[in-house]
Specification:
The complex is a heterodimer of chains A (about 210) and B (about 60).
Chain A (H helix, E strand, L loop, with lengths): L2 H20 L7 H29 L3 H4 L6 H5 L9 H7 L8 H6 L6 H18 L16 H8 L3 H5 L9 H7 L30
Helix pairs in contact in A: 1-2
Chain B lengths: L1 H26 L5 H27 L6
Helix pairs in contact in B: 1-2
The chains are: A mainly alpha (about 210), B mainly alpha (about 60).
């Protein structure tokens, strides 16, 4: 649902609630009681449900993640003109949806992955506002990046299955799929955001 | 007297629900993590408290013969 109908729903609900609050004697009649039930229970529940879904959807957007100042360099790293930067390569080649770039790689592709992502997001907020926020270059993942998140898209693709780098040893591809050999920390795809070296980087300008 | 108490409770329920809805309306105007937190941690409890007060009013309401 786009935000406008949700805003209208909220405005309508709030207006009706205010009418009931201002003229509470309406609840003396049967019709008034029905209106009060609608205004004080049904419409607020609908509004909160719609608003919550809207916020959850927004929380997966790139602009949401980059709205915190500490993430600015991570947003810049998506535009580095260097194929070895894994996020930049994915972002610039549309291998991930650009408007959901962060979420696509940083959610867990499990049953409760979205919930876990939200809990991690709350932890980010706690660190940002109640703790000592680290410098961008010092930010680390809470747990090592799981191959599962890469394999969610790459598994089964011809390029992934046939590329020579994945067949250096007979067991390598199996180990990658099993998660016993990390895609990122085993020296193969280890240039991730690397925000500490952005000052020396050149940037891709879209459309040029 | 009982009607007045009931109406006062409904008024308070409306104030809490209305405040929660207005607050949540404003959080929807911004795309920021804090907007989500305010929606969840302030708006929802206000609306829930108002809703519970309203339901309490309903279940304690005497049916007139």
């Amino acid at each position: 649902m786009s935000p406008s109908p949700i805003l209208v729903l909220f405005a309508l609900s709030a207006a009706l609630v205010l009418v009931i609050g201002r003229f509470s004697r309406l609840a003396r009649s049967r019709e008034g009681r029905i209106l009060a039930f609608l205004a004080l229970l049904i419409l607020p529940v609908l509004s909160v449900w719609a608003g919550f879904n809207e916020h959850m959807e927004r929380a997966t957007s790139t602009s949401f993640c980059l709205s915190c100042h500490v993430m600015t360099d991570y947003g810049r790293s998506l535009h580095v003109d260097d194929r070895s930067y894994i996020p930049a390569r994915h972002f610039q080649n549309n291998l991930i949806p650009r408007d959901h770039a962060c979420y696509t790689c940083h959610t867990d592709y499990t049953m409760f992955g979205t919930v876990k992502s939200k809990i991690r997001g709350m932890r980010h907020l706690w660190v940002q506002y109640a703790g000592a926020a680290p410098k961008p270059a010092e930010i680390k993942l809470y747990t090592p990046f799981n191959n599962r998140e890469c394999l969610h898209c790459h598994l089964g693709s011809r390029k992934f299955e046939e590329v020579t780098g994945h067949h250096k040893t007979p067991e390598l591809l199996g180990n990658i799929k099993a998660g016993t050999r990390s895609c990122m920390s085993s020296g193969c795809h280890d240039t991730i955001h690397d925000v500490g070296s952005l000052k020396d980087a050149t940037f891709w300008k879209e459309g040029k | 007297m009982e009607k007045l108490v009931k109406e006062r409770r409904i008024r308070w329920a409306a104030v809490m629900i209305g405040a929660g809805l207005v607050l949540q309306f404003f959080t929807l105007l911004r795309v920021h993590p804090l907007a989500f937190v305010v929606f969840l941690a302030v708006g929802c409890p206000l609306i829930a408290a108002g809703g519970i007060l309203y339901l309490w009013t309903l279940v304690t309401d005497r049916v007139e013969p």
